Amino acid sequence: MELKFLNKLDTAIFKHLNPTHQAVTGTTAVHAFIGGAIISLIVFIMQMCTNNDALIEVVAGIGLLALAGWVINYSLLTLKAFPGWGGRIAYGAYVLFLAYLAFMVAMWAIMIALLGLFLYGIFKIFFSNGSKKSKARFVYEDGTEVEAKEAGRGICGERYFEGENGERETIP
Predict the structure, then answer these.
(1) Predicted confidence band of residue 3 (pLDDT cuts 50, 70, 90)
(2) CA distance from start to end of the chain
(3) Is the dihedral angle over the CA atoms 28, 34, 47, 55 positive or is it negative?
């Protein structure tokens, strides 16, 4: 999978520095996005599980260095094909900048997805089945039957019923 418009932009910018230029930024940006999403999820899980901010920063730094190293390694043949140092430095900076942008977009996408998941959970808990109140009939050991209407739902999906006399029962 690759982003063809990035490859076209790459070719348009760097074709005059290297006539045999092969664009790799489209694939590199997609892989940097995937790697950035994985790093963001790891950092998110660590933020939930530990209070040690230094550890979180170290793990995020190692992940970003590994991502930058992978991006440079993936585009190394294209970097070596440039005849002078100026083209190599410019192309390396361009690839790293695009990897940084892909990482930031991935991080924001993960955070927005997690926010959406959180809001979905809130709405599901507080606003689920507000208009669909079900009925139940409870038969007690002494043989009495009580009609009950649903009074609410719990977080795990259990249903709370309230009888005619105010007694409450739970159905998992």
Answers:
(1) confident
(2) 46
(3) negative
- CA-based nearest residue to 110, from 56, 28, 41: 41
Give the pLDDT confidence of 106-124 residue by residue, as tens digits. 999 999 999 999 999 888 8
Q: Determine the pLDDT at residue 37.
A: 93
Class of residue 103 by CB neighbours under 10 A (exposed 0-12, middle 13-18, buried 19+) = buried
3-class DSSP assignment, residue 171: strand
**What's the CA gap between 74 and 2, in Å, rounded?**
13
- The residue written with tokens 């005849």 in the block is 83
Mean pLDDT value of segment 101-106:
93
**How many other CB atoms are there within 10 angstroms of residue 62's CB atom?**
11
CA 60 to chain centre: 15
Helices (H), ranges, the chain: 4-14, 25-49, 53-74, 76-80, 85-126
pLDDT on residue 159: 79
Strand 159-163 and strand 145-153: the pairing is antiparallel
Non-local (6+) Cβ contacts of 136 within 8 A are 147, 148, 150, 161, 169, 171
What tokens does 17 get?
A: 């520095």
